[in-house]
Amino acid sequence: MNIAFLLLPKQDVAYVFESFTVRQALEKMKYHGYQSIPMLNKEGKYVGTISEGDLLWAILDWQREGTVDLEKRSLADVPLRTQHEAVSVYDDVQTVLDRSVDQNFISVKDDAGFFIGIIRRKDIIEFLTKQVDTKQPNVS
């Protein structure tokens, strides 16, 4: 079964570019209430998911070095502590299920590696709940 029906398209997803400053990313994450957000390169290809933890650890390291300037440091300077690989739009539901155990959302890319959206864990759970409900005999 194709996963495209679970896709929240790119135009409906908040994301950042690796050229953004740390401050821009933090402001965007705060505005949307996100703990992590997809990060793209200037061509629009998925490069990873950046989290609050990634940003906080980087800020702590920069503070120790005496080089904290959130308006000058770009996201490209922030090491990603966890690598969240994007799935292909052609991957199956099981691949998405496996990834959703550890991630609130799974980034989706096309054949050329361009970011096309996300699949949220919430949407996966709702889909599975409907599947179970339609297969349950009516016990009245």
Automatic annotation (TrEMBL):
Keywords: CBS domain
Top-level taxonomic group: Bacteria
Gene3D superfamilies on file: CBS-domain
One matching Pfam family: CBS
Ranges in coiled-coil conformation: none
Domain CBS: 7-70
Protein name stated in the entry: CBS domain-containing protein
Annotated organism of origin: Mangrovibacillus cuniculi
